Amino acid sequence: MEIKVGIAYEGWERIPHQQDAYRLVGKRVYMHGHDRCPFWEGASLVWFRH
């Protein structure tokens, strides 16, 4: 069995009190382990909701 994992972020924000420092926000993880539909099709359906 092959398991595929995708990670997406909504964007980034500046870290307070630090010049030119940023962090990613809104992390979303998608795991896919079946052959019924392609990985990107399943990931886009799940991530589209957010």
Could you give the topology of this structure?
Layout: E1 4-8, E2 11-14, E3 22-25, E4 28-32, H1 39-48
Written description of the protein model:
The structure is a single chain. The protein has 50 residues and is α+β, with helices and mostly antiparallel strands. It has one domain. Helix content is 20%, strand content 36%. It is built from 1 helix and 4 strands, in the order ββββα. The protein has one helix at 39-48, and strands at residues 4-8, 11-14, 22-25, 28-32. The chain has a two-stranded antiparallel ribbon. A two-stranded antiparallel ribbon has the order 2-3. The chain is elongated.
List keywords for this structure.
two-stranded antiparallel ribbon, elongated, 50 residues
Our count of domains comes out at 1
CA radius of gyration: 15 Å
Helix fraction by DSSP (H/I, runs of at least 4): 10-25%
Helices and strands, in N-to-C order?
EEEEH
Sheet with the most strands, sense and barrel status: 2 strands, antiparallel
**Overall mean pLDDT score?**
91
Q: Based on DSSP secondary structure assignment, what is the total number of beta strands? A: 4
Shape: elongated
